Amino acid sequence: MPVYSYSKLNCYLQCPRKYKFAYIDKIKTEIKETIESFTGNRVHETLRKLYKDLMYEKLNSLDELLEFLRKEWDRKWNDGIIITNKDYTPENYLKMAERFVRDYYKRYYPFNQSRTIALEERVVVDLDGTGRYKIQGYIDRLAYRDGGIYEIHDYKTNMTLPINEYLEKDIQLPLYAIGIKDRYPDVNDIRLIWHFLAFDKEIEIKKDDAELEILRKKVIDIIERIERSEEFPAKPSILCDWCEYKPICGEFKHRYKLEAKTLDDFLSDKGVQLVDKYAELIEKKENLLMEIDKEIEKVRKELIDFAKREGLDTVYGTKAKARIVVGTRPVFPYKDDERREKLKEVLKKHGLWEIVSDVDVYKLSRLIREGSLPIEIEEEIKKYQDTEKVEKIYLNKLRENEKRF
Questions:
Q1: Residue 111: left if φ>0, alpha if ψ -120 to 50, beta else—which one?
Q2: Residue 303 and which of 125, 162, 344, 386 are 20 to 30 A apart at CA?
């Protein structure tokens, strides 16, 4: 069985079809780097230099690190880097990167909170102890504190702060924690630390052995599902905007084909014609249903008015009969009404809470309509009662003995 990675698992969870393109079909694409990725890589390189030099007893000044960042930025920049938001220039992103490094430097100087063990450290996790289920990854920075405390640091340069998502759902750093526990016998505690550099914010959590065991089983289950999968359906989402496989994916392939056509060829495309015809028929159906609904409402009102004038409860036709119900019914506060809590207290006081199932307005109305409650309780409840106009028609087929013709 192949060695998996967090990015590989995440790819499958986000879109099985993309996983197939990338890892089964191994389709190569020309991946263009985005400005966000470029910025993140330069910041990671700068922080890696900071800690690597510290391991050799060299403490860079902030100015030295910023100069390194700028040189690497200029050296690796190319015009093929994609900037999707045209409101911002490469200079804006460079200034952001400088701010990330500056804030980090000022927050942790002189960087003696822990001792760095490794940078960009490859870790392989044996999930079941047999070597059958393996996952690998790279830790931005692995550090150690006295007392067997290990720290797994991860740097985030994205412009969102999804704290709950990382705390509750992230499996990457907890997976690395399993690998570190297996590697170092003196581990007493592992701390997972995310640095959200855009916000100068650090988030730290711990995972106990029970939580890590649950994670082991969860990841093994994901791997099993991948290995047994015969179909890899597309899973459209906002992430499709950044997918390099859009031109060959069934979700977007037709659109890419149409973009290369002239207007005449576009309009004569069989797919375009079929979709337009289908949309036209659906719209026609919806318009027809709206007209029918309007006609039904018109006849409904006329039938109710007829029954009122003639003093009828039921009106007969050739195939059906219509029973007309006109009047009022009691209604009680719904969930968005502030009086509802007061009504709850009354119901609890009289032992009716369980009977009406958390203010089931229909059950409560029926109890009052049937006269099932003592009069004093009924009067107390009626303080919270309103009335609602009722005009309904109940249509039923005529039985054979009711038909006139």
A1: left
A2: 386
Give the tokens for residue 340. Answer: 């509802």
100, 45 Cβ separation under 8 angstroms: no
pLDDT tens, position by position, 166-176: 666 788 899 99
Classify residue 30 as left (phi > 0), alpha (psi -120 to 50) or beta: beta
Return d(Cα 104, Cα 92) in angstroms, integer. 19
Q: Do 165 and 207 meet the contact criterion of CB atoms below 8 Å apart? A: no
How far, in Å, CA of 34 to CA of 15, rounded?
20
pLDDT tens per residue across span 44-60 = 999 999 999 999 999 99
Q: What is the dihedral of CA 269, 275, 278, 279, to 10 degrees?
A: -130
Question: Which amino acid is it at 315?
Answer: V
Distance separating alpha carbons of residues 249 and 21, to the nearest angstrom? 9
Strands 189-196 vs 149-156: parallel, antiparallel or unpaired: parallel
Cα 1 from chain centroid?
Answer: 31
Which position has the token pair 């249903």?
289
In whole angstroms, what is the distance from residue 303 CA to residue 323 CA? Answer: 10
Q: How far apart (Å, rounded) are the C-alpha atoms in residues 194 and 166?
A: 9
What's CA 251's distance to the chain center, in Å? Answer: 20
Both tokens of 219, joined, read: 């990841």
Amino acid sitting at position 289: L
pLDDT of residue 232: 94
**Topology adopted by domain 4-228:** Lambda Exonuclease; Chain A (3.90.320)
pTM: 0.68
**Distance (Å, whole) CA 104 – CA 200:** 7
3 state SS of 229: coil
Give bridge partners of residue 392 from the DSSP assignment.
325
Tell me, what's the pLDDT at 54? 96
Residues 6+ apart with CB under 8 A from 76: 38, 42
- Residue 179 and residue 215 in contact, taking contact as beta carbons nearer than 8 Å: no
